[in-house]
Amino acid sequence: MLWRKLMRDVLENKAAYLACLVVISIGLMVYTSLNLTADNLWQAKENFYREYGFPDGFATVQGISDAEIRRLTALPGVARMEGRIVQDVRVIFPGREESAFLRLVTVGLSQETQISKVKHLAGLPLDPHRPGVWVDSQFLAANELEIGGEIPVIIGGRKVFLEIRGQAQSPEYVYPMRTAQDLFPDPRSFGIAYLPLPVMRSLAGESVQFNQLIFQLEPAFSYQDVESLLEPRLERFGLVALYPAKDQVSNFILNQELSSTEATANVMPLLFLAVGAVILYILLKRIIEQQRGQIGTLRSFGYGSREIQAHYLSYPLIIGLAGGLLGSLSGLWLSFPMTAMYQAFFHLPELRGRVTFDYVLFALLLSVGFALLAGYFGSRQAMRLSPAEAMRPPAPLSGRHIQLERWNWFWHSLTVQGKMATRNLFRHRQRSLFTFVGIMFCFSMIAVTGYFNNIISVMIFEQMTKVQTHDIKINFAAPLAAESARRELLNLPGIKRVEVMLEAPATLKHGWRERDTVIIGLGRDAELFNLFDQDGRRVLPPEGGLILSSQLAEALEAKEGTIITLESALLRGDTVSLPVHSIIPQYMGINAYMDKDALNRVLRQGELATSALLVAEEEALPLITEKYREASQVATLENRQQLLDNFNEMMATYGFTVWILAVFAFITGFAVIYSFSIVALAERKRELASLRVLGMTTGEVSQILTFEQWLLALAAILAGIPFTIYLIGQMAQAMGSDLFTLPLIFEPNSFIIAFVGTACFILLAQWTLLRQIQRFSLVEALKERD
Amino acid sequence: MTRGSWERKGETVEVILTGRKLCKWYQLGEVRVQALRDVDIEIFQGELVVVLGPSGSGKSTLLNMLGGMDKVSSGELFYRQQPLHGMNEKGLTRYRREAVGFIFQFYNLMPNLTAWENVHLSTEIAAKPLSAKEVLIDVGLGERLEHFPAQLSGGEQQRVAVARAVAKNPEFLLCDEPTGALDFETGIQVLKLLRKFSREHKRTVVLITHNAGIADMADRVFYMRDGRLDRTRNNENPLAPEEVSW
Ligand SMILES: Nc1ncnc2c1ncn2[C@@H]1O[C@H](COP(=O)(O)OP(=O)(O)OP(=O)(O)O)[C@@H](O)[C@H]1O
Ligand SMILES: [Mg+2]
What we know:
The structure holds two protein chains of two kinds.
Chain A: H1 2-12, H2 14-52, E1 57-64, H3 66-73, E2 78-84, E3 86-91, E4 100-107, E5 119-123, E6 132-135, H4 137-142, E7 150-155, E8 158-169, E9 190-196, H5 197-204, E10 210-217, H6 223-234, E11 241-244, H7 249-290, H8 292-300, H9 305-345, H10 358-383, H11 387-391, H12 408-412, H13 416-427, H14 429-467, E12 472-481, H15 482-490, E13 495-510, E14 513-522, E15 531-532, E16 538-539, E17 546-549, H16 550-556, E18 563-567, E19 575-584, E20 592-595, H17 596-603, E21 608-616, H18 620-629, E22 634-639, H19 640-683, H20 685-694, H21 698-735, H22 748-775, H23 778-783
Helix pairs in contact in A: 1-9, 2-7, 2-9, 2-10, 2-19, 7-10, 7-19, 9-10, 13-21, 14-19, 14-21, 14-22, 19-20, 19-22, 21-22
Chain B: E1 5-8, E2 11-28, E3 31-44, E4 48-52, H1 59-66, E5 74-79, E6 82-83, H2 89-99, E7 100-103, H3 115-123, H4 132-138, H5 154-167, E8 172-176, H6 184-201, E9 204-208, E10 220-225, E11 228-234
Helix pairs in contact in B: 3-5, 4-5, 5-6
Magnesium ion binds at residues 59-60, 176 of chain B.
């Protein structure tokens, strides 16, 4: 029979319970879907790596022979080692302007014995006597190519047509990016092609040596053990890079995505569950207060306090179960499209959605746990009442004078309703506190969204109009003599300005801290690449020192004047020490800057340049692009527009997540305000009805409730501003990477958006409240005895 | 010690409740409110006791003690041979469940359960309950089983409350101003039901009232003043409920 009472009680307050249910469901939906998606991703990765193998370590060298590799394999700790030729070649798509590249990777013909195998997805096997390749499916799809077709590429200055024999996927290129500096994969402009070694040699020249080594470790050895043995021995083969599996670009990004998804999956839901639990707690406390007399009656005819507590615990239990089921099942459903979304980014052959109920079960336990916790604390106090006590109406809440009344100017400016409302705030401290925190949280979430929207334009604007003002950047395939390169470019028609730069990859060390980066050498007269200090003043790289981006300085724990040691493949084993001249804030890139001439002197290789920045007449741009696209000295050609597009696209993916958060915040804020208002309304029905009888209009009566909320909201919004700044600081730290830094710039409009959003959900909640006030009948409200 | 039985009007009647020097005080911060002072009391099987006294004299407090709704502060209280003082909450709950039926001034029905559901709620936990439906028919509400309290008049609600207490088939009924919120006619109806229950089942009824008139239908009348049992009066010839007036 108590079950019927329960169901009817819940139905009576359905709106408030529904709000709570929605919040809990959202939390568990996020929990289940993200965890399942992360699991699917992890499972697919594990399976693919296990089945096809993933090397423990990688080395890039200028060239090494088979015999040398065999000698290195004998080193202690190295179980197996293989050499391959990896070469990026330019693809010539007729009539297309942007450059596209294909990375040719040699594979053994009998794949069985290889450390890292390639999964052959479709088409014919490779043939050592024909210039045919397997290509990754995404590149084929993005460029509308088919098996049996041909890809025109430039190898060693010659145009060659590669036959597409099939599709394949390697565990090493699950997330194919050309360089670590790219922001995300672009299958239209970069693909992987696998081909047999003899074919590679016949295309690129018989003398071409292996330039990539992959190796497997003996079980008892760590990468570090082997690294220290390999590094000196590889030096004479022109060691460019030596890194473990975890630093391999595709693997690194895949793992990073996995761990960030898992983190979100476990933290976000807790927030929602906490909010849901608070709402439940308040609702339950309220209903128990209201049903005090009923509790006393039940006790009088012999229900024990445990039975009654169990009865009241079944309210949150039902909400918890319902929310858990709803949330986790919808999360299960949502994990399919989300997994599909990941399929577009990570090319794992077996990445697909699965129906498993582990997380559904966890989610249920989680929500029931939270709900019961809320229920326990919500019902605990009332259960301690002795039955005789419960029969008596609760001691009326004392109308006390509050501290605020001391502020005369404030107090006297209030209407009677205002005074009632203000005293009420202090009467229900706990509820006021929860409302305060709820509004603050929601305000901040919306403000964070506003910030992200803003910051995209701020960053692009900064980068494009102040830092990099060129139209085209040309990266040379190999360092060129600076002056002759500049002069040649200057002779092009329509060119207005040419600046050459020297970009040298290097490892910067400070104590045990080290960081791989690119040192950019800028000319004295550089205008197309500008550096600004904290206060927005232009700075020029000094003669004998480094300028570090703040992100890099932080990573190295370097301050102005700190001596940094440089190591670079270009230095051939030497190291150079230089002081930090200044540290500048930078949004994109984690770089060090030097004077170009000074950098050239350090490298002792003459006046070299690795890239050039150009400004040209608008009409001349396509011509220049056309001319240099196929030039063998040019590695890549970037134009501004492309950079901008890339950047926009990346920020959009972040923006999307953040928008979802904002929508959730809005719903949560509404749920908090709404359910608390309903509680307040029910509690004061009589009080408010008496005021109506005295002749107040519904508007005047509702003012008491709304004034209370606005007062709290105002305080919460004020507190929300520093909270937002703190949140953004935390998020910027979590999201910032080597590629970009999120600047902490606060434009007032993100706060204005948040203010409007907060006001909106408060108004929406109050509007529903007003309708309720208009509906309740005075007679009933006054007759009701609770 | 308690006496198990008592000679009365020539027949042996059992004593079901015995109180010795019952005290109850409430600590309100610094102040101690003494609600009961040294009350000695005996209540017999099958009698109808009316408790009279001015407001605040401790009538409700006494009833709550007798019904195990609250613990005594000092003194001894026995239900038959069983000590209630010092009994833990669990024991008191069992006592209320098995022995006591309560009726209150403001009915205290569960507002969102129907008449029948309200009665059924109490029979669910009783050891040897009567049929909820039959009891409701008995109190004249056979037609209103599916009505919610808000759809019933005050008198009807109180009759549901009586049915609820009676259907448990308790040893005795404790009624705190059951007619307090009712008009004369309706009040009489309720009193008739109580009298009938007491006579038919040989059950005890303890009834608090402010109406001295109702006392005329009692076997015995207790007068309370200032937390003390001031005096008792025996009615040799109790009136029928319809004969009393106030
Ligand atoms: N829970 C409590 N806390 C404090 N004082 C109490 C409590 N319950 C009763 N009292 C006090 O004990 C005294 C007796 O109260 P009680 O309710 O028994 O009176 P009563 O005779 O039933 O009065 P009425 O006829 O008005 O119902 C009163 O002074 C009352 O204020
Ligand atoms: Mg009383």
